Automatic annotation (TrEMBL):
Example GO biological process: mRNA catabolic process
Entry similarity comment: Belongs to the CsrA/RsmA family.
Record protein name field: Translational regulator CsrA
Natural source organism: Clostridium ragsdalei P11
Quaternary context: Homodimer; the beta-strands of each monomer intercalate to form a hydrophobic core, while the alpha-helices form wings that extend away from the core.
Stretch forming the signal peptide: none
InterPro entries, sorted: CsrA (IPR003751), CsrA_sf (IPR036107)
Lineage: Bacteria, Bacillati, Bacillota, Clostridia, Eubacteriales
Function description: A translational regulator that binds mRNA to regulate translation initiation and/or mRNA stability. Usually binds in the 5'-UTR at or near the Shine-Dalgarno sequence preventing ribosome-binding, thus repressing translation. Its main target seems to be the major flagellin gene, while its function is anatagonized by FliW.
Single GO term (MF): mRNA 5'-UTR binding
Keyword field: Bacterial flagellum biogenesis, Cytoplasm, Repressor, RNA-binding, Translation regulation
């Protein structure tokens, strides 16, 4: 697993076509903006864990 520190406005690129950007919310919570092709499935961790059981 790769662990990175990113500040709001910074991003990482996965492969050629997936961009994950850190977005700051009004409440100070961490939020991620994910830009990926429509054929790439994106699932929240808690949902994925429920599906794996």
């Amino acid at each position: 697993m790769l662990v990175l520190g990113r500040k709001p406005g910074e991003y990482v690129v996965i492969g050629e076509n997936i961009k994950v950007k850190v977005v700051k919310s009004d409440k100070g919570d961490l939020r991620l903006a994910i830009d990926a092709p429509k054929d790439v499935e994106i699932t929240r961790g808690e949902v994925w864990e429920q599906q794996s059981k």
